[in-house]
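Folding Query — how this chain folds
Tokens — whole-number codes for backbone shape
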Amino acid sequence: MSGSSLDGLDIAYCEFQYGSSWHYNIIVSETISYPEHWLIALKDMSGQKGEILIEYDIKYGNYIAEQINSFINQHKLYPDIISSHGHTVFHNPDLSYTFQLGHGQTIATKTGFTTITDFRIGDILLEGQGAPLVPIGDTLLFGEYDYCLNIGGIANISYDLEGERVAMDICPANQLLNHLSLQIGKPYDENGRIAQLGKMNYSLFNALNNHPFYSLPHPKSMSNQLVSQTFISIVNKSKANVQDKLYTVCKHIAYQIKEIVKKTSGKNILITGGGAHNNFLVSAINYETLLNVVVPINDIVDYKEALIFAFMGVLKSNGEINCLASATGANRNSSLGIIHSP
């Protein structure tokens, strides 16, 4: 899969077993950094004409297949299926569409393995948000945690509420932080060291918190376009220096997480995703929420979402439910994904 923060293409070779419950193992994993031409292409893809989108859907499918074949050969692997999320270019459930780049049939044909793709559109057609999808994995693989928080380009969370698993996108995260870090020549703020040198800018903090997204009811999801067109604009308009902006955005993320968890009585929170490596941000979340924060030391911290999309592929291939309506707002649970034979 590829996330909105454009860190690279995540590949994880996973094994799943079922006894009285599901068990998982990430056997080998890797993030392949994008070459510059793919970084530029993916950043600009939402502004391209339809013919270019079709062209790059195939090209990106070929790119994914090439990386998978190299990964398989390097590690001498024998997968049963490939489960590919692709890279989200558009996500607008209010207008009933979403689009993930990375042509499924291309991947299946070029790798020779059955490939499952297009995990989001089926839920949107059932009047859901098409996101978040990871709560099925949070429930069946990580049920020992009261909250599962993933901090990627956008932060999202899932937890049990009155016997159902609910989930939502919370706020922009690494998309904002990386946007600011690039202004001083760094791809990201390692360990939050730059943010830690800053101070709160209350004008910016209040402007971010007053965004209309936060007043929307659950279920809700946040598109990359919403972040780039509104949140980044708010940050850019602020006259604060980059250090203060990074500090304030971290505090904003922690505050919005607190606003979600304060409504329930959980005790622990699992934090994964790129933002889990930002020590200042994790400390801010701990300070705001007063929860027992768990940041895994194994591959789960970076590959939990890849693991869960692999798991969704397993459930789909077994004809089992892999999407919870309680999380997305759809009119029923469903088994999402399109299966492509090689």
